[in-house]
């Protein structure tokens, strides 16, 4: 299996081998290698992205691959061409692997059954964002030295979060304990059987406090009248961060809504790994692309 569709069902061994290979690439002494010379990788983003898109491109270039960048707005998608026909078109031109981000849930599975080249999920709907979870696990393992037994709180808009889902499956495979914290309108009922929902005051006591971007525009008529109300109830404020354990860390996949789910002063504080996470996106994606093409 060379596709990477999600972390659900991945074994601890598979995850560990990706994290170990990323560690190799993080320490690699020069920026460019020729590991994937002559291989073509297409980045197909049908949804916006900054971190994922650019870190895949940096990763591919560092491996010496030829990179094709596809932007939906400048393509025949604007004329109504489907995602399936677009991917099939690039496959027919001889790409060796495809990185894909898109809105629909469930379509990736169907694509993977009909496309011969390996596909890497760069985020699909609210389903999975496996490379984000892998770089998050890499960041945690590097900080704590292990993942087994770590307490991880994932706080915020769980309902819409592919990051929460991919982290849940990957962390549980590695023996970490995941808890969620969210207002009722942002809870995902189908995940309740997999991890407990706990109160905010409990959630901030974890080893890892992972905040999620809130999309208040998608919660019309919900619990909160304003971003300030949300911040007071579920935001990581400076006051709450002051009650975190001394060894604990703050994470966020970004982009960040400063002063909504996390206070501005905390984004770059000592406990925060937010920009470290972004830097780990490159070696993780190098390991994942290499796995797809090996
Ligand atoms: N964390 C993340 O996926 O960011 P982008 O949407 O900018 O890629």
Describe this structure in words.
The chain has 294 residues and is an alpha/beta fold. It has two domains: 12-127 and 278-293, Aspartate/ornithine carbamoyltransferase (Rossmann fold); 130-274, 3-Layer(aba) Sandwich (Rossmann fold). 38% of the residues lie in helices and 14% in strands. The protein is built from eleven helices and eight strands. It has a four-stranded parallel beta sheet, sandwiched between helices. The protein has a four-stranded parallel beta sheet with strand order 6-5-7-8, covered by helices on one side. Helix 4 (107-114) links the parallel strand 3 and strand 4 (119-124). Helix 1 crosses helix 11 (274-293), helix 2 (51-62) crosses helix 11 (274-293) and helix 5 (130-144) packs across helix 11. It is globular, with a radius of gyration of 19 Å. The termini are close together. The model has no long low-confidence stretch (mean pLDDT 95).
Strand order of the largest sheet: 2-1-3-4
Structural class, by secondary structure, is alpha/beta
Question: How much of the residues is beta strand, in percent?
Answer: 5-15%
| Helical stretch tally | 11
Oligomer: single chain
Report the count of strand segments: 8
| Overall pLDDT score | 95
Terminal residue distance: 11 Å
Give the count of structural domains. Answer: 2
The secondary-structure element order is HEHEHEHEHEHEHEHHEHH
CATH C-level name of the largest domain: Alpha Beta
CATH topology grouping of the largest domain: Rossmann fold
Main beta sheet: strand number and arrangement? 4 strands, parallel
């Amino acid at each position: 299996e060379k596709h990477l569709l999600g972390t659900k069902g991945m074994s601890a061994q598979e995850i560990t081998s990706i994290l170990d290979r990323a560690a190799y690439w993080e320490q690699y002494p020069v920026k460019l290698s020729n590991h994937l010379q002559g291989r073509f990788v297409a980045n197909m983003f049908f949804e916006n992205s900054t971190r994922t898109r650019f870190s895949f491109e940096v990763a591919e270039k560092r491996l010496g691959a030829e990179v094709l960048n596809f932007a939906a707005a400048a393509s025949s998608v604007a004329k109504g061409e489907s995602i399936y026909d677009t991917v099939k078109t690039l496959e027919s031109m001889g790409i060796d692997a495809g990185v894909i981000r898109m809105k629909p849930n469930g379509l990736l599975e169907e694509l993977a059954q009909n496309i011969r080249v390996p596909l890497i999920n760069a985020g699909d709907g609210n389903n999975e964002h496996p490379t984000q979870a892998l770089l998050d696990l890499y960041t945690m393992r590097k900080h704590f030295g292990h993942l087994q037994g770590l307490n991880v709180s994932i706080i915020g808009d769980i309902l819409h979060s592919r990051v929460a889902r991919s982290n849940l499956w990957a962390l549980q495979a590695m023996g970490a304990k995941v808890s969620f914290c969210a207002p009722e309108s942002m809870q995902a009922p189908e995940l309740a059987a997999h991890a407990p929902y706990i109160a905010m005051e409990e959630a901030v006591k974890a080893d890892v406090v992972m905040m999620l971007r809130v999309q208040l525009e998608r919660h019309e008529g919900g619990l909160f009248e304003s971003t300030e109300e949300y911040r007071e109830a579920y935001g990581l404020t400076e006051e709450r961060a002051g009650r975190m354990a001394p060894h604990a860390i703050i994470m966020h996949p970004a982009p960040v809504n400063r002063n909504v789910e996390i206070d501005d002063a905390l984004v770059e504080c000592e406990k925060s790994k937010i920009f470290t996470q972004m830097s780990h996106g490159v070696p993780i994606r190098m390991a994942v692309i290499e796995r797809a093409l090996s």
